[in-house]
Amino acid sequence: MSPQVTMQLALAAPLLGTVLIVLTGHRPNLRETVTLVTAAVMFLLVASLVPEVMAGGRPEVVFGNMLPGLPIALKLEPLGMTFALIASFLWIVTSIYAIGYMRGHHEQNQTQFYAFFAVALFSAVFVAFSGNLLTLFLAYEILSVSTYPLVTHHRTPEAKRGGRVYLGILLTTSIGFFLFAIVWTWLAAGTLDFTDGGILSGKVSDTVAGVLLALYVFGIGKAAVMPFHRWLPAAMVAPTPVSALLHAVAVVKAGVFSVVKVAVYVFGVDFLHSLAASEWLQYAAAATILLASLVAMTKDNLKARLAYSTVSQLSYIVLGAMLATEISVVGGGMHIAMHAFGKITLFFCAGAILVAAHKTEISQMRGIGRVMPITTFAFLIGSLSIIGLPPFGGMWSKWYLALGALDAGKQAMVAVLMISSLLNIAYLLPIPIRGFFCEPDDNPGHGAGVQEAPWPCVLALSVSAVGCIVLFFFPEPVYNLLAGMFAR
Amino acid sequence: MISVHFPVLLVLVPLIAAPICLLLRPLPGATWAIATAASWFCLYVTVSLLFRVLDSGTISYLLGNWAAPWGIEYRIDLLNAFVLVIIAAIGAVVMPYARASVTREVSPRRIYLFYTMFCLNLAGLLGIAATGDAFNLFVFLEISAFSGYTLISLGRDRRALTATYRYVLMGTVGATFYVIGIGMLYMMTGTLNMMDLAARIPAVAQTRTIHAALAFLTVGVGLKLAMFPLHTWLPNAYTFAPSAVTAFLASTATKVAVYVLIRMYFTVFGGAEIFEMFPVRETLMVLALAGMFAGSFVAIFQENCKRMLAYSSVAQVGYMVLGISFATVTGLAGGMIHLFNHALMKCALFLVMGCIFYRISSVKIADMAGLGKRMPLTMAAFVVAGLSLIGVPATVGFVSKWYLVLAALEKGWWPIAALIVASSLLAVIYIWRVVEVAYFRPVPEGAPEVTEAPLSLLVPTWIMVLASVYFGIDASRTFEVAHAAATLLIGGGK
Asked: ipTM, 2 decimals?
């Protein structure tokens, strides 16, 4: 099978899956089988593309013109490969988790849930494969809209409010700034294709380029650079599998992925590096990293704390892109992978605690480690990986980001990264520590025994936790893949 | 060959169909069949005309074979071929829908009137677009206006009558202004043929009479196309008319008036020069922007969904006028693309309103609680068409916005571009109000059982919805036509 065909099949699979999920909606077991099979097929198809990309191939597919001279096109390159690989792999894990969670928590409208989930994954991989800015924007907006029903899944007034903030900010930023920047780029450069070395260099003055860069970074609201981050905490009203896969991996990473993609293939690293504006945006990213961590410390609701932690971590990747050195960009790319595994583990644990112990607030979770040892241990692993300690994958991305900052001569940014690690320790580690070492507050009958979440949940969170460790020992494949961005 | 006479058959067939409908008044089914057949015939004719124009250039047809300045000329170039297809297509989709919808919304004694007036209206609108004679245009303007008044007054709500009355007053003022303008042009040039006018106006362009004529024409046509602040007739007329009427008029009547404005400015008055001569650009631009914001703002606070969409139309007309005011190829093409795109999406939305009214006999937003569950296909149509109004990619609304923003940036007017984007975001608010009620608010206690709308309503609705997606994904064809037409017009329209 040629890579072009595989790419199209990988996109067709989740769409077909959506149809089948709707058709089998009345038989839950069959429906979940369809979800799992679809996820597995999609992952295998995506994975089969890796050798081609590693060998330097850049397969392209051009569909018809959407606007004259502006086709809907796919083009696979290392960054998109990495993102698609992570998203499709974690979809399998999340699907397993979701089966346990959705049934264990007696959620309504599960067919709708699985169907929109598949659409969201389609659009995430569509974002990853997009070959020009117009296609990227198309996929990006499909992702915003298709995740709205998932965010508002509970249909409560609270869900409605969350959905309002979610869609309101994402549409305002994307139409208000992102689209604006794309049209401007099209006018200035005469093309929107993602090209090695960028398309804007020499086409616009430095001032215009600076304005455009700001429009891109803030317009890609999914990257959650402050002050456009509020949608992410708002999205936490969703069921936990949505928060886990979409709001720690697929949606938010689609955002930072777009930022990196714009930095590398629209501006070009060299041009970006020469812009004064990129320095200002480094400060914006650094401010987000620190402020979001500080806000996270004040949150007692576990999912809210994790959401702010995500806001903070996303700006690592934005920072990597704005530092605009090859190492920092690769580091940013690696952080897409590393943070994905770490944060999805944490969300899985949060959901498992909710299902098994019906607890949402951190202050209620003293002694949780005695009741749910596996979950709490996985939470510890995920936390350590986010903090960036060995032997967990998160260390590598921070390492390369710091190297990149030094490479760019920005020692201050190294300091920001280090302070952020300390803040991560302060808001993440107390949870497992208190879980293991404190007595439960509300457990009169001592030794109530181990009571974990349903086994699919435990399996899923174990897999992703192991993933954090594996990525420490085998980071080369990811690194080599990403380094391919600058190989030519 | 009969196809030579297509330009006139376009008008004649619906014009003859109208009295036939009147004669068949005891048989509502037959009147429906005749009106539908007429509308489908018109669609066939307009499409074949468009292809012929694309193929071999402008068609000139002399009525009764009287040579042009004396006789009436029908002149089909790319611009009006494009508009003709829009009108006929909307008519052809609304007609099958009308049968069930009209039976529900119009008193049985008046159903024949609906079909009669619809045929007349169609003839009038197509005539406006087809003719190359400024006075003949006025005649068709009146035909379409009077049949339009009747159509609106068919609404069962008594307020439809006052709405019509208001429309009659405003519409008559508009038509009178138009004819005064034409009279002045005739006085100065001695001709009514548009091509002739275009050739003779430059010699007398700097006279006060011509200036006054331009002003009269602008105001007259501005009333017809509901340009802010001349839009006050529109909201009530759209709200209280039967749904099928609203769907048809909202996507054709104002669009034809926009066409007349383009035709007058760019063909008769010779294109971009008048934008330099007078503050035409500034006037149009300010009014367009004011309309875009005022219309959207007012839409946000409406309780009646049809009325909300009507105000949204005022805003959307603003986009078209804004495109015209740029007086560049991209801007004009953008305005024309939006003319087409808005016809598709607004027609879809009003058809949805008809589906809802058919089931719950109300289009108040508050009454739509729980409809997302009870009428899933109808509400899904609303969501998709609504996203198009917002301008999400893969819908036609996105394409319009793309070109309007592009046109503004091309001129270096980035604040205008920012305003276009900002005003379109207001659509998110008013569309989402409805979505939230339909999907989040539970069905009220004791509400009557409601099922999905019948297929005869759903199919036309979804045809429009899918069209507004299709032309959003593959916009290159629409763009080619609009772009070629705009190039023709900016080049002097010769």
From this structure: 0.88
